[in-house]
Hints:
Helices cover 27% and strands 19% of the residues. It is an alpha/beta fold. Mean pLDDT is 87; it is low at 153-165.
Amino acid sequence: MLFRDRTEAGELLADVLLNLKGARPLVLGIPAGGVLVARVVADRLGAPLGTAQSGFLEQVDVAQKSVIVVDEGIVTGATMRAALETVGAAGPKLVIAAAPLAPPRLGFGRLAHDLYTVARPEPLTSLRRWYAELPDVTDDEVRAALRGRDGSDGHDWAYAGATSL
Length: 165
């Protein structure tokens, strides 16, 4: 077990991403658990937070921006790859994939400039093995994470892709 919960995983991932703070990135979390990890990262980087999924872009302009796409962990890469394709199609300046956990030899080629992780254990067949607590995430928890610590009405977040929220 590496992480107590998504908050600790987000704190450790944010440490790895601190060098990107000067790029003034937009942080996009992959629902549902990725949004909770991304909230911690966005807070630490002083960045706006939104969601990213496969599909289409709505209510967010990522053109010529630095974008960090965050998930709670990557096992096969399919979910992250789909989110990166959606974000990349909108013409960002820089796209970073980020997750606390990812398999050792996973890469995203031209979809991401880099992949930031805390650990790359092998084998990585289940995220639950690496988290002490990994409960299911509700839509209400995702909405709360998007509102932020100060309970703002969402003006500091952006949305990319389709979601059930």
